[in-house]
Design goal:
Length: about 250
């Protein structure tokens, strides 16, 4: 049985970790190096480091932040933000990332997914999908930190990115992001059933029960930010609750 992964997320802007609601109203949450080491010591299985302003500002990822974090970190690191072409991903990998997450650029040019999978391997290719619920049902793909609707259906897009070589999907509910109302379980279940690669649940976690619900809904890993940054839970304490609930986690 594969163990469930607990993944703290560090959204970064100008070299600092930030947090907001629905990708807006960002507030300072600390130093990425200090937080990364803290979460590693707590037992985090991986870390995700996203430059949340790179794409909206039309620039590349601030790779110096990646280098500073990797210098001190020994667990897997996924980095994203500002990746427009395969060479951008290569530069992040050179800076210390183990995997690269792509969102907007993949929607604009789906062939980028093929390029990344061929050049760096599917194991390095993570496609981030930000989903918004339609009033009529189903979910649509949004990009540019939720500012732009694409007209794409989340389920169909999930299938396509896997067919093109994505090795993992980072699935965020835009409606739930930062709201502490729990992951969107229907969305997680639908995507998990539609694809054959691991799905990371993101958006809305506030307590251990939310993580357990997401894993039961089909997620292979759970990502959270606020509950860690605000010191409400540690990775170690969450793993203890998950283990008591029968969820396989790494020590």
């Amino acid at each position: 049985m594969l163990t469930a992964r607990i993944i703290p997320c560090l959204d970064c802007r100008d070299g600092r970790v930030v947090k907001g609601i629905n990708f807006q109203g960002l507030r300072d949450a600390g130093c990425p190096v200090e937080l990364s080491l803290n979460y590693q010591d707590q037992g985090a299985d991986e870390l995700v480091l996203l430059d949340v302003s790179a794409t909206p500002e039309g620039r590349g990822h601030q790779r110096e932040t990646v280098r500073r974090v990797r210098k001190e970190l020994s667990i897997p690191l996924t980095c994203g933000g500002g990746v427009r072409v395969a060479d951008d991903a290569g530069r992040l990998l050179d800076a210390g990332a183990d995997k690269v997450s792509v969102n907007t650029a993949a929607v604009v040019n789906a062939e980028l997914i093929n390029d990344l999978a061929i050049r760096y391997g599917s194991q390095c290719t993570v496609i981030a999908i930000d989903a918004i619920r339609h009033e009529s049902g189903g979910w649509g793909v949004v990009v540019k930190s939720g500012r732009e609707r694409t007209g794409r259906d989340v389920i169909q897009w999930s299938k396509e990115v896997v067919e093109r070589g994505a090795g993992e999907i980072l699935l965020t509910s835009w409606d739930r992001d930062g709201t502490r109302s729990g992951y969107e379980l229907d969305l997680l279940g639908a995507v998990s059933q539609a694809v054959t690669v691991p799905v990371i649940a993101s958006g809305g976690a506030a307590n251990p029960e939310h993580l357990i619900d997401a894993l039961k809904a089909g997620a292979d890993a759970v990502l959270a930010a606020s509950i860690f940054h605000d010191g409400e839970y540690t990775v170690k304490s969450l793993k203890a609750v998950l283990r008591d609930a029968g969820v396989e986690v790494r020590p």
